[in-house]
Amino acid sequence: MTADETKLYQQLRAGSETALAQVIGHFGPVVYALTKKVLGPAAEADVEECVSETFWRVWQRIDQYDPNRSTLRTFILMHAKYAALDGRRYSRRSRDKDPCFLPQAAPPMVDTEERQRVQHALDSLSTLDKKIIYLRYYLDQSIKVIAKEMELSESAVETRLWRSRQKLRVLLDESEERGLVT
Questions:
Q1: Which contiguous run of DSSP H or E holds residue 131?
Q2: Which residues of 117-130 are buried (b: 16+ CB within 10 A; e: fewer)?
Q3: Which of 9, 16, 31, 49 can pair with 80 through a Cys bridge, CB separation 3.0 to 4.6 Å?
Q4: The domain 112-178: what is its CATH number?
Q5: If you compute the radius of gyration of the chain from its CA atoms, what whole number of angstroms results?
Q6: Burial class (CB in 10 A: 0-12, 13-18, 19+), 107
């Protein structure tokens, strides 16, 4: 830890708001960049909320910091990562409750041809398998949660995911080889 970080750390432990302002000024840009990367294409307000949450957590938990284990920068970035992950989970939950929210078949950065190939392959799956794929890979739900929601055993969900991935892999490989877009 540098001498500046040591001084900031000691001032933060003493409750100095000036030190907190210095920490925000010094580490703010890197916290912002990490948060934006974790949140992806989130609204600017969401990114700023997570950045604020990060520095609030640092302020509240500065006593947990051990200078012998990591740098102050690492401690702050760890809190930034977890604040952003929490923000992403909250954002997904909010989206899931919105009845008007309709997901895209593929991420927007995928070209139209690729999107059509993926959509065609997904359409070949059963409704149940499509729903399980959606819950697992789009909403990032755990196997346990999916099993409970779909009234299946966890092993049945895992098996359906595995078979669906295999089927999608074969279909996408075949369509790529033939250059098909339907």
A1: helix 127-133
A2: bbebbbeebeeebe
A3: 31
A4: 1.10.10.10
A5: 22
A6: exposed
Reported pTM = 0.50
Distance separating alpha carbons of residues 18 and 62, to the nearest angstrom: 15
Q: Which of 157, 170, 148 is nearest to 129 (CA)?
A: 157
pLDDT in tens, the chain (182 residues): 677 788 888 898 898 889 889 999 999 999 999 998 888 876 778 888 889 989 998 988 999 988 888 899 999 999 999 888 888 776 655 544 443 333 444 444 456 777 788 888 888 888 888 889 888 888 888 889 899 988 889 888 999 999 998 998 888 888 777 765 44
How far apart, in whole angstroms, are the C-alpha atoms of residue 116 and residue 176? Answer: 12
Distance (Å, whole) CA 166 – CA 9:
52
Q: What is the Cβ-side half-sphere exposure of residue 73, based on CA atoms within 13 angstroms?
A: 11
Closest by CA to 77, choosing from 20, 31, 32, is 31
d(CA 31, CA 101): 29
The domain limits of the chain are 3-97, 112-178
